[in-house]
Design brief:
Largest sheet: 7 strands, mixed
Helix content: 25-40%
Bound molecules: pyridoxal-5'-phosphate
Structural class: alpha/beta
Strand content: 5-15%
Shape: globular
Order of helices and strands: HHHEHEHEHEHEHEEHEEHEEHEEHHHHH
Radius of gyration: 24 Å
């Protein structure tokens, strides 16, 4: 990798371009997850230049780099104003921090809540099952117990009574989403915040995903319930600028209603011979690049730009939902109320995971969601403004893909493999077992370095690709129905373990 003499700039960039050609398309409105594309000409060039100007600036010390502090404070003010805070609002003393993303914002919201209550030795947080997985990560990292509240399979929201019932004296934070990632629905924030306030505990609104769009959708006449700092009892709220603020990746904002609520988020340390470390967020050294790029995005798009992008997104959502409604055998999981279209199938002969593959084959990259509790498997579409110009092409492609999926029939896992998926325990899944399973499914040549002595592959694991017609076939990145069917059959703890091991197999040094 380290060339003896070093390569010329053109050669290096050509290498990266060749690697990037392997990726899913980040632009063009055909990838409905992971990326947020406003399709604004010139924005990429602007943000790249802004990023370059500040890439070497270090957020570690705001006194050494006041440029970064100024840009962070401007981003916090913009987010606060959009989300019901600032001078003259219901939250005039709002403060905030810029973090690297939604997960970090949520971890810090939980940390601040936990550390503000040192007298609670076994702290807990209450999170709807539809809350983002980052809350579970925060609970895991911070050794806080996660109390999950089920969501109603029809409304896809928790009931306020269930949230109230889950709150205990040790609860340091109650969370809700505005909107949820999986289905794009807004939780009953005002009612949940009231429950938290009555219990004397904090309430965090996770608006990481759609928090930048909801206020604009409201201005466009979409009914959006109160969800931000204007709601009594909401103590903190997070919004990701690298999602619907359309900034390049690496920027989220965590707001607290006042500085006393934020205090426990900070970490300061002087008990060593080096510099006194003061970190408002998880990272210490932080590049100024993403912050400058976000600053440039907000300044360039402006309020009118965001309103226009929200309108384009709303129109795209309406058209996509219409395309889904027009297909027999598909059902919207919820009437779209933000920027997500999510659907499932009502036809036992239509395999949703095959449909996802058929859409991929037609150049539309959607996100399959596995069954969970009472909720069926579904297909998730995160809709951004760039989808609007392509949306008319989606309906015919969907109809065509559904016809192809019906013709292909259901994925049938070999009975033994299905039985294995449902009976495996997470502990039984060693790297060797997963490597054998991945190889059996045709998923690359990953072979774990052994030597741990842990477990022998189960011979049944190699059977997936070797089944008869109409049954499982080898998976490829474009044909994932078999893998998704296997994961769908397994309980969440086994899914986690399988995929953790699988990703670990992928992450090997490129010698
Ligand atoms: C509602 C919600 N919260 C938190 C996150 C986590 O954000 P990130 O991936 O930036 O860490 C996401 C990401 O999709 C999200 O949708």
């Amino acid at each position: 990798m380290i060339d003896e003499k070093g390569l010329g700039a053109d050669e290096v960039l050509a290498e990266i371009r060749a690697l990037r050609a392997l990726d899913r398309p980040t632009h063009g409105g055909r990838l409905f997850a992971y990326v947020y594309d406003p399709a604004v000409p010139g924005l990429d060039e602007l943000t790249a230049a802004a990023h370059a100007q500040s890439a070497h600036v270090n957020g570690l010390d705001p006194t050494a780099f006041p440029s970064l502090l100024a840009m962070e404070n401007a981003l916090v003010a913009a987010a606060a104003r959009l989300l019901g805070g600032g001078p003259g609002s219901a939250a005039p003393d709002v403060v905030g921090s810029v973090t690297s993303g939604g997960t970090e914002s949520l971890i810090l919201a939980v940390k601040a809540a936990r550390d503000a209550r040192p007298e609670i030795t076994a702290p807990r947080i209450v999170v709807p099952a539809s809350g983002h997985a980052a809350f579970a990560k925060a609970a895991h990292l911070l050794r806080v117990t996660l109390d999950t509240v089920p969501v109603d399979p029809v409304t896809l929201r928790p009931t306020v009574a269930d949230v109230a019932a889950a709150v205990r004296p040790e609860t340091v934070l109650v969370a809700c989403s505005a909107p949820s990632y999986a289905h794009g629905v807004v939780d009953p924030v005002a009612e949940i915040a009231a429950v938290a306030a009555a219990a004397g505990t904090r309430c965090h609104v996770d608006a990481c995903f759609g928090g930048w769009t909801l206020p604009y959708l409201r201005r466009l006449g979409v009914p959006v319930p109160p969800f931000d700092l204007s709601v009594d009892g909401v103590t903190s709220i997070s919004v990701d600028l690298h999602k619907y603020a359309y900034a390049p990746k690496g920027v989220s904002v965590l707001l607290h209603r006042d500085a006393s609520l934020r205090a426990a988020q900070y970490f300061g340390y002087a008990d060593w011979p080096g510099y006194t470390m003061v970190n408002p967020v998880l990272a210490s050294t932080r590049s100024g690049g993403p912050i400058a790029a976000a600053y440039a995005t907000l300044r360039h798009l402006g309020d009118a730009g965001y309103l226009r992008l929200a309108a384009a997104t709303r129109d795209a959502v309406t058209a996509l939902a219409g395309a889904v409604r027009a297909v027999d055998g598909l059902r919207l999981m919820a009437e779209p109320e933000s920027t997500v279209v999510c659907f499932t199938t009502t036809d036992p002969d239509l395999d949703l995971f095959v449909l996802v593959d058929e859409l991929t084959a037609r150049g539309w990259h959607t996100q399959p969601q596995l069954r969970y509790a009472d909720l069926p498997p579904s297909v998730h579409l995160t809709v951004t403004a760039s989808v609007a110009p392509r949306v008319a092409e989606f309906g015919p492609a969907l109809a065509d893909a559904v016809a192809a999926a019906r013709a292909a029939g259901l994925v049938r896992l070999p009975a033994e493999l299905r039985a294995l998926a449902t009976s495996l325990t997470p502990d039984a899944l060693t790297p060797e077992t997963v490597a054998a399973l991945a190889a059996g499914l045709g998923l690359g040549a990953a072979t774990p370095t052994s030597g741990s002595g842990a477990g022998t592959p189960d011979p049944r694991l190699g059977a997936a690709a070797a089944s008869g017609p109409g049954e499982a076939v080898a998976a490829t990145p474009e044909r994932m129905a078999v893998v998704n069917t296997l994961l769908d059959a397994a309980p969440p703890a086994v899914r986690e373990r399988l995929l953790v091991e699988f990703v670990s197999l992928l992450q090997r040094p490129a010698w």
